[in-house]
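Q: For a teaching handout, I want to show students what a protein-ligand complex looks like in token form. Below are the inputs, and the small molecule is adenosine-5'-triphosphate. Please produce the holo structure.
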Amino acid sequence: MDTTDRPALDAALISAHCPSPFTTINVVESTGSTNDDLKKNAAKLKHGSVLISNTQTAGKGRNGRKFVSQPGVGIYCSILLKPKFDPTHFLRLSILSGIILCETIREYTGLIPTLKWPNDVLLKGKKVAGILCESTYQANQPSPFIIGWGLNVYTQEFPEELQDIATTLEDNSSWPLDRNLLVQDFLVRLAAYLPRLEDLPLGKMSSTYALKRGTPITVHDPKGAFNATLEGINDLGQLVITKDDQEVTLVSYEISIREDESE
Ligand code: ATP
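A: Here is the structure, written as tokens, with adenosine-5'-triphosphate included.
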């Protein structure tokens, strides 16, 4: 594998064209989890601080699951926000992060990824990126919000359990890929959208990337899984589904696509 055209992550290059509030950008070689680092230091860090690592030894998904973060082949990025809007908008911010990641991938590969609500980005049915948003919300106190994302950029040897379900940008596109430009693009888009968060038409913005209306899904509710049909994502970032002919909105839970019934 020729790795000579894989530029190293470079904080100065990323910062060069990053707008406010993303002016404090740190790149490290390795850490446990970039989300955990920002969470631990949230009180002393500025709104808009960004931490990117070349690898993570304890990369996280939801519910304590692991996000494999191998060295030199991906982007493991966390962004600390200390937003002025109230926490009811946190779901919007989380879904907006997924939409932005899809827009960035499209810009730099020409491919249209799929956003699998709430936090997976897929290329040709395989996961290319995961998003983990975390907040240390406490009533009546400013609530730091962390957007964490991991993106598989370059071809890599995945552990056996991921070989059939994970993919990379490089595996799907022959366009030259530079992790610095991908991070920069994400931050430029986030800076542009953030001031308008409360009015963003997330339903329309996500429609290019969301799973198709009518997709049969299974919702993994802790009280028991049930089958439903997907309608789309609304402007609040909720998933709209039809269950027993009734329209229902979801704010969390996992969904899986019912392969047997999809085309
Ligand atoms: P799932 O991806 O199983 O639908 P999820 O969306 O909740 O669940 P997370 O918990 O956010 O996913 O991410 C962890 C899961 O992502 C792991 O259980 C594994 O299946 C998958 N995974 C871990 N590392 C990678 C990676 N580098 N690329 C793609 N998928 C990964």
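A: Two things your students might notice: The first strand starts at residue 25 and ends at 28. The chain is about 20% helix and 25% strand.
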